[in-house]
Amino acid sequence: MTVDEEESADREIAAGNTSPAEADRFSGLTAVEPGYRHVLRARLAVFWVPASIIAIVLDQALLAGTPFHAVPSTLVPLLALVSIVVAPQRIYRRLGYALHANLLQVVRGWLVHVDTLVPFVRVQHIDVTRGPLDKAFGTATLVVHTAGTHNSIVTLPGLAPERASSIRDEIRRHIRTDFE
Amino acid sequence: MNDSATILGPPERLHPLSLLSSVAASAKGMWSMFAAGGYFAVKGYWLLLVLMFVAFTALSLGAAVLRWRNFTFQVGTREIRIDSGILSRTHRSIPFDRIQDVTIEQNPLWRLFDMARVRFETGGGSGGPQAGDDGALAAIPLPRAAEIRDLVRASRGLVPAAAAPEEAAVQEEAPVFAMDLRRVLLAGVFNFSLAVLGGLVGLSQTLGDAMGFDPFEDEFWEGLFAPGTPIGDFIRDNAAMTALGGALVLVLIGLGTGVLRTLLRDYGFRLTHAPTGLRRRRGLLTITDVVLPAKRTQAAVIATGPVRERFGWSELKLQSLAKEDGGKGDHVVAPLAQPEEVDTILLAIGWPLPHVPQWRRVSFAYVSAFTLLLMPLLAVSLVAIAFAPLQGGIAAAVLVAAIATRFLAWRRYAYAVDDSRLLVRSGWWRRRTRILPVRNIQSVDYMQIFVDRWFGTAGLAIGVAGGGLTGHGIRALPSETARQLRHRLLSRFA
Question: Chain A interface, mutation test: which of B79, B80, B98, B276, most A Cβ atoms within 10 Å?
């Protein structure tokens, strides 16, 4: 197939009722725990709340009397508010995973959309980690290590701890020697 | 945990003596504290010094005890489980099938107490450049360490401590590939490098003051070449000649560096068959001798450039799990070779290049999305021309050159999939043809940044084991093609 033929084939598919990419992206994907939004929110707050305070203090102390006075005092807290209130919901909505017969799929992101497929037989070892925030909101992160250079660590955050360990056990069942 | 696949042994702890090494390790990281201690001692604040010392010992010992109490490992029949962490708990399970090697290390202190540090190497990339710390037990009794190692080896079907049949009957056969002196010198010419100039700049900055003059300062040259001085007058009279001379000196330095470096590294380059793969010997002063097992080879890259390609030359590198030379995972198996020679080497490792691969081009979005991303920068530099013509002009020229190179690269960019391999041809200045057997794929990312979405394209990024050569993947595929190709690449796992 030449480039032109391929492109026209693409257009034909795209001319159908739904975009195939959009359909594929969310078909069969499982959302992570809703509690993950709170983990994200807390994590963003840890960064943005001190940042806002510093911005306000610096603004009042250094910029008083200049034309830029009050700009950081409004802009940074506004940015903080937007990212704490809006971003977690959006990140959560874009995050999904699927356990296929022999593959783990992790899909995330809109601005930078990454859809990762890892064959179970390629997994070297598996971690289930829980940080303090994870514990507070009842989530856990599954970390899958492959031997790859690019993308050798695939993380799937926001799982219920029992789900994380059951996925871990599922993947481990598939791991077998393959030294072809 | 409701699995029955594996029976885990009872949780075990590290030997309490491991506390010693962890306190020592935290003391090593506390040099600033020693500095403060020294300051207190000099000033005579003895009470503060004692307080600080006590506080530090208590804190680090407390942390070490906590860490020790929270670190347990369980040896199962098919895997080892390591639970660690105080606030963030990590439960790591390492299946025996994935352990490449078990290393038992003893430092002098451990030898005194008959203990050992056990390291499991799984080939996971998590350790960064020095991957290999995938799982480690800092201090356990030596007999237990040997027991675990034998258990792992037995479950892998390996004979414990089998002596490798080393160099049994080394007969000198005809090399797969060899370079005579002429070829090495030619390779050196293509390795033209001005890196030595950078080194000289650094040297003069450190030594400039000591020497009393700095050849990289404007004043040095202004004084030397000022009109009226003999050199200044000479330059004014022979401007074209001196410019030519300067360029010639640069070329000679670049050529000299390239030839010298290549000669030192590649003199007597010889690639021969070995029982497990290829054996490479090279070097003038330091002769290196490396065996590259064919089974551990993950990918091959044929690298060349516009000039080299004109004369049919290219370089062949293999990406391998074996990391003999300096931890780098890429091995040059032919610094400068003609296409037939490359074919011979690829045949020797069992990867013959398909004769007429059906190359397929990528979308023009490879150029247009890139251009779009650079537009804001280009606009800024065009505006900047009004204020600073020289700097703005240079910036704009660089950006335009980048876009032009991207276009030239797009004309070469193509991929081909045959029954078992993915071939990707890319680059205009740095021309690369990557050969990746599909069975060596570790993971595949489908990636799309916002600009790609406007053009309806996506890229595939492919994880391959072994370091050195990164960037396996294809950019700017129509998004549906990208999805189908990904399914095809992973079909052997599905």
Answer: B98
